[in-house]
């Protein structure tokens, strides 16, 4: 079967009408959508998906299948489609109110309007969101507001009573207040789109939906009257699995000009055992555990190369035990070579699992993304923000200390501890005096927050929302500075900061317009603190990027729409979790909803649909190609018994009563040492079983790492790749930096983030120190004071002061006067230390060249051309031999084994001087670390007297050893040059990262230097 059955001939394809595509999971429905879209590509069709997180993965899927897409994003949400049809953004029509704004408006409405039935419960915590959802259902119905009010009136006459009266008053007042606030309900935009379809000419496909609201159905029908519309529903008509998609398919079959029922692809699975799970849903009868039937015979799985496929059952005692059991299996798969992108962990709801799964996966070193909507105050940034607001506004020490100990400012814990000890010793733990002490101790961390509050005339503390918003941005910037650039914690912080700023802006508009929540009036200056906290605690933060690659994805079952992977873990298969119990209707019961719909003559409210949980479980079973893990619990952490889900039990029955693959009980607090999924678990196992971590057999566990690796990152920007590929000449510094850490080279040489903000840094310190040393030695050479001796030090000190002042004066626009004075003191210490060292330990060799520049077109040293600037070249009396000195502003020097430490600069300079000055003997070279006054390098033993006591005897080498070391460094340099030309940026450095690296917050490596307290 091909796409012609659905698309038809070229003439038929362009004819308006609804084409319905119905098929079970794994029927290749996305392929039909791609073919349909390609056939109509000249008309720029839209593919519409249910939610915003679905846009990115489906767009990537379409691009991977068809190539680049031009003319805008090919995938959008239903709301974006309605906006595109109406041209609302350019027409200046009122914007749609956000969920938070609708909540603020509804809270003010319930507070100021009297209701017979809703009045007594209007102050309950859940009433406002329930009322917003109820009004949303009414607005998304098939009729306009007048039709809704007419239907509610008919229901009242038929027995709806005061409930119908209250709802009619609620809808009418809600519409009026929305209009006064110059906003509209999201359903209004869809209704306007229905009236604007006349000029619309772009085909539309709807993919991934299980149901539609009445107003959405009206828009789909209006579009189908003008353009080709493709509606795709995941439903198997041969199997009586109830659910929203089944009812939706039955409805649309009546309107479709063509309906195609596609069968499941064969083969749909790499595992016959997974295919056998279809027996859970026999044809022509609803699902029910057939416990009395004999277990069927399951096909034996075929060979899989050792990884395994089919169905594996897991049992754990306690939620954390279940997460650890799943985590250990994921680690095993990664070690066996499965890519993280080929693994998905599914749960019914993410909220109960987010913390524990995140903790376990981070501890086990599993790269992962958790897709969830989290309350703002459950995020790290949200908690710190709430504590900071409470502490500053109400002058309370405990929440204030909670904020100060968070990672969203630069106060150290030791400083906060000292502050707390002082305040408690003075018994100064509340009030304005305490606030003043904290503000004096940490003005940068606390000043902006404190300035955002002021006492109002009515005694309430008013909030400057703009000040709080700026404070939130400061917290985000500090998180960016202190966290690794690719960490999930930083992504959550940024998302939380954006959500908080958006909520504060919406609250500000509500306050200015006077339709905010209870207590938001505050003062003229701003709303009250309680109102701000009340609003912020209702804000949701979306975490996890749906387009992230190279991660194990953790998400809810309904979010796993078009994606298929090799391995799926389905967790939490216990009664009360999956299947999820039916949620009771809020404000209106099921009987009231059915009565209202029947008496009003139109569908006012949504009614529950049977079989939704079964349909979701069936969908989850269809997501893996090769291997499916089903995980349940037999108890909780406190020993309370749990009952496995009937879904899990029925699968076990279908598999012939198969025993669990793994069972982790409450007694299993550790893994066997040989099966430990991480270093932490290995050390715990050693402690429990009284084993020595040094034992070689157990030590091998530490060396075991997942076989899966990130491929080396390769630059792809054409201009950058072309420029790098054409390079013929390489500086010694470039080659050394790349050989040690390609990522640091990439950031420092190509991205150059230091140029984004002009401020004093270690780079200024090193550059200025090098320049002052060159100026001083050049002056000493002119005055005949080289080689430097102790008698020449007074003059050298005068020269240091003169040239340092001159160079600092040229930096007047960078940093503050205090920062420049501190920089001058540091440079003076570095320079004077080397001069004193040279005067005491120097030999007869004296500086001959300072900042000697190699030719711009490079020096050929054998397969590679070297350029650069040599800090200093010393020569013996008569001009030969010569000795190279390279300054380092830190405390690390290298030699005589340069290649082992990737210290390439000195050896490369020695090779270049040999090529440039063939008549001159090269004695060797050294790194002079100014920060620690350490000098190390290599010098020929027969020429060591020329450099005096600069180098110890450990650095004396023979001619052949020096030649071999230079050649080894040249080979490393050639490899580095090839990597630079190809734009290869591996994810890991050659060795362990030093603690002083400035790129640590954005580095992807795990080879961090340890921090010792």
Task: Describe the overall structure.
Helix content is 44%, strand content 13%. By secondary structure, the chain is an alpha/beta fold. Among the domains are: 4-93 and 190-261, Rossmann fold; 99-183; 310-371 and 548-598 and 609-668, Rossmann fold (3-Layer(aba) Sandwich), CATH 3.40.50; 375-543. The strands form seven sheets. Strands 9-14-8-15-16-7-17 form a seven-stranded parallel sheet. A six-stranded parallel sheet has the order 3-2-4-5-1-6, with helices on both faces. It has a six-stranded mixed sheet with strand order 20-23-24-25-26-27, sandwiched between helices. The protein is elongated and about 115 Å long.
Number of helices: 36
* Class from secondary-structure proportions: alpha/beta
Globally, the shape reads elongated
Q: Order of strands in the sheet with the most strands?
A: 9-14-8-15-16-7-17
Q: Main sheet, how many strands, which sense, barrel?
A: 7 strands, parallel
CATH class label of the domain at 310-371 and 548-598 and 609-668: Alpha Beta
Computed Rg? 36 Å
CATH topology of the domain at 310-371 and 548-598 and 609-668: Rossmann fold
Under CATH, the homologous superfamily of the domain at 310-371 and 548-598 and 609-668 reads P-loop containing nucleotide triphosphate hydrolases
The proportion of strand residues reads 5-15%
Name the poorly predicted regions. Answer: 283-306, 519-523, 1008-1013
């Amino acid at each position: 079967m091909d796409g012609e059955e659905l698309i038809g001939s070229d003439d038929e394809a362009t004819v308006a009408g609804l084409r319905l595509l119905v098929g079970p999971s794994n029927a290749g429905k996305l392929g039909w959508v791609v073919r349909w879209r390609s056939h109509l590509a000249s008309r720029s069709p839209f593919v519409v998906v249910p939610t915003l997180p679905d846009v990115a993965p489906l767009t990537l899927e379409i691009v991977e299948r068809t190539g680049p897409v031009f003319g805008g994003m090919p995938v959008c949400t239903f709301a974006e489609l309605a906006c595109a049809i109406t041209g609302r953004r350019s027409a200046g029509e009122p914007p749609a109110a956000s969920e938070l704004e609708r909540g603020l408006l509804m809270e003010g409405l319930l507070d100021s309007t009297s209701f017979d039935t809703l009045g007594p419960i209007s102050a309950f915590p859940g009433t406002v969101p329930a009322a917003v959802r109820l009004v949303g259902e009414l607005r998304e119905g098939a009729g306009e507001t007048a039709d809704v009010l007419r239907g509610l009136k008919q229901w009242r006459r038929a027995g709806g009573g005061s409930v119908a009266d209250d709802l009619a008053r609620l809808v009418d007042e809600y519409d009026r207040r929305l209009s006064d606030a110059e906003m509209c309900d999201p359903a209004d935009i869809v209704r306007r789109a229905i009236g604007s379809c006349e000029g619309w000419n772009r085909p539309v496909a709807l993919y991934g939906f299980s149901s539609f609201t009445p107003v959405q159905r009206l828009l789909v029908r209006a579009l189908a009257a003008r353009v080709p519309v493709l509606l795709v529903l995941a439903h198997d008509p041969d199997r009586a699995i109830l659910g929203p998609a089944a009812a939706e398919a039955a409805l649309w079959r009546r309107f479709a000009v063509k309906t195609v029922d596609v069968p499941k692809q064969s083969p749909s699975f790499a595992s016959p055992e997974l295919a056998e799970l279809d027996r859970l849903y026999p044809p022509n009868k609803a699902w029910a555990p057939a416990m009395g039937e004999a277990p069927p015979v399951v096909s034996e799985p075929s060979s899989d190369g050792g990884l395994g496929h089919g169905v594996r059952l897991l049992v754990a005692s306690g939620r954390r035990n279940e997460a650890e059991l799943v985590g250990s299996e994921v680690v095993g798969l990664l070690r066996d070579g499965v890519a993280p992108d080929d693994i998905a962990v599914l749960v019914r709801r993410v909220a109960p699992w987010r913390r524990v799964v995140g903790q376990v996966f981070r501890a086990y070193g599993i790269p992962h993304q958790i897709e969830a909507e989290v309350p703002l105050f459950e995020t790290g940034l949200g908690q710190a923000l709430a504590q900071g607001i409470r502490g500053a506004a109400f002058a309370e020490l405990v929440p204030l200390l909670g904020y100060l100990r968070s990672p969203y400012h630069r106060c150290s814990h030791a400083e906060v501890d000292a502050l707390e000890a002082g305040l408690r010793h003075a018994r100064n733990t509340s009030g304005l005096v305490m606030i003043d002490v904290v503000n004096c101790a940490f003005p940068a961390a606390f000043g902006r927050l404190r300035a955002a509050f002021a006492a109002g005339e009515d005694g309430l503390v008013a909030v400057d929302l703009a000040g709080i918003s700026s404070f939130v941005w400061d917290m985000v910037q500090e998180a960016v500075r202190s966290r690794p650039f690719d960490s999930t914690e930083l992504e959550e912080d940024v998302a939380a900061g954006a959500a908080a700023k958006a909520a504060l802006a919406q609250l500000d508009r509500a306050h200015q317009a006077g339709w905010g929540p209870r207590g938001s009036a505050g003062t003229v200056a701003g709303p009250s603190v309680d109102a701000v906290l009340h609003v912020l605690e209702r804000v949701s933060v979306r975490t996890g990027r749906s387009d992230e690659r190279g991660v194990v994805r953790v998400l809810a079952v309904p979010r796993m729409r078009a994606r298929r992977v090799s391995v799926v873990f389905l967790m939490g298969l216990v009664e009360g979790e999956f299947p999820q119990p039916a949620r009771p209707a809020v404000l209106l019961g099921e009987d009231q909803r059915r009565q209202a719909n029947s008496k009003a003559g139109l569908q006012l409210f949504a009614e529950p649909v049977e079989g939704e949980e079964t349909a979701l479980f069936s969908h989850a079973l269809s997501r893996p190609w090769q291997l499916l893990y089903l995980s349940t619990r037999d108890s909780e952490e406190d020993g309370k018994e749990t009952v496995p889900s009937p879904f899990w039990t029925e699968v076990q029955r279908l598999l012939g009563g198969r025993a669990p693959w793994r069972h982790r009980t409450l007694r299993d607090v550790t893994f066997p040492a040989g099966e430990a999924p991480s270093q932490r678990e290995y050390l715990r196992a050693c402690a429990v079983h009284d084993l020595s971590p040094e034992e070689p057999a157990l030590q091998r566990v530490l060396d075991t790492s997942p076989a899966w690796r990130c491929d080396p990152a390769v630059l792809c920007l054409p201009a950058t790749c072309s420029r790098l590929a054409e390079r013929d000449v390489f500086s010694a510094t470039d080659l050394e930096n790349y050989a040690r850490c390609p990522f640091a080279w990439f950031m420092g040489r190509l991205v150059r983030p230091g140029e984004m903000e002009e401020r004093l840094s270690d780079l200024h310190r090193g550059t200025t120190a090098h320049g002052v040393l060159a100026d001083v030695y050049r002056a000493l050479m002119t005055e005949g004071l080289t080689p430097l001796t102790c008698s020449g030090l007074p003059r050298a000190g005068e020269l240091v002061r003169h040239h340092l002042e001159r160079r600092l004066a040229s930096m007047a626009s960078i940093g503050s006067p205090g920062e420049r004075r501190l920089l001058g003191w540091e440079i003076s210490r570095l320079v004077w230390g080397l001069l004193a060292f040279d005067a005491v330990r120097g030999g007869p060799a004296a500086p001959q060249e300072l900042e000697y520049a190699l030719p711009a077109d490079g020096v050929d040293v054998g397969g590679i051309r070297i350029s650069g600037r040599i800090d200093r070249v010393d020569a013996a009396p008569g001009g030969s031999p010569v000795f190279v000195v390279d300054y380092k502003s830190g405390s690390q020097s290298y030699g005589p084994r340069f290649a082992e430490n990737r210290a390439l600069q000195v050896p490369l300079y020695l090779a270049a001087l040999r090529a440039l000055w063939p008549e001159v003997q090269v004695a060797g070279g050294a790194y002079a670390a100014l920060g620690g006054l350490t000098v190390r390098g290599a010098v020929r033993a027969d020429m060591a007297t020329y450099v005096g006591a600069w180098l110890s005897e450990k650095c004396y080498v023979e001619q052949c050893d020096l030649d071999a070391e230079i050649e080894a460094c040249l080979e490393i340099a050639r490899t580095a040059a090839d990597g630079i030309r190809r734009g290869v940026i591996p994810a890991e450095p050659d060795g362990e990262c030093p603690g002083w690296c400035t790129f640590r917050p954005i580095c992807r490596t795990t080879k961090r230097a340890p921090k010792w307290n």
